[in-house]
Specification:
two-stranded antiparallel ribbon, 13 strands, 18% strand, 11 helices, alpha/beta, 7-stranded mixed beta sheet
Amino acid sequence: MGSRTTLFNPVNGFSTVLPLYHHAVAANPLPMAAKQAFSSLLLLKSPFSSSISRPAKSHYHRHRCYSNTVNVCVDDKELRSPDLVALEYAELNLTDKISGELGHVRSRQHVNPLSSSFSVPARVPDWREVFRDPTLPLMVDIGSGSGRFLIWLAKRSPDSANYLGLEIRQKLVKRAQLWVEELALGNIHFMFANATVSFRQLVLEYPGPLMFVSILCPDPHFKRRHHKRRVVQKQLVDCIINNLLPGGKQVFVQSDVLEVALDMRNQFDAESEMLKHIDETDPSMLCDNDGWLLKNPMGIRTEREIHAEFEGAKIYKRLYQKRT
């Protein structure tokens, strides 16, 4: 298994062995096996189907696929990419009916975080009201999207860690909080917040330690004049590093857009005095020749990751650890 390092595991709190992915498999072998079997089916390796089709043409723009729905036929049943997300997160058993209370919810709606409406920092909540135990180690997911990814993690470690999702699209936050209430989880909270202006104060006033930060498939803002809108900027990078506890505390970034992934990587790589990539301390965390992690270390994929991988895109991943 390679070297053993005491690290914070966002899947189940504290752990002494990486990769995190293996803990999730061991904790939940049947759903993972089902997902792998279904993935094999989609990759034309299954003897049970003779009719599987993908779109003849996907719409790619600078390494990013923007087709909203991917169709697959399995035994004459057409599956769409949202069906693949539902399969991945089936164990959460989240209801769709609450979407009606919010109207149409768009996960990929791009907003301008520099607009005046997002310039006011979010109010720091009373952490005692937000979390059952506000002293537990905290994971922050910047740009939490629909929230399914973070809810899945929180449900697996109800007593060992807290999870905070920061999202700039208010409807997604409201729906995610409804799901949290529906599942009666006391270790997760979603906030309508612009991380660029809110992250620092939120983590400074949190009573427990900041142990893990994730930034997964953030809005790409392709146009050069819009690069300043990207969430990973020098100010946020410094704030993350300064507030992470040293020794094993981690930052995980990924994107299906190479340009965006390189931008994030360059900024975190530049902090080599404070951060090191995980493969420096754990040889079991394998990377490709370009230094990108080969496996997802979180135990489950985000929705964007599911869509992108099915459409043939690569996910570029880096996992950093704060030096002691």
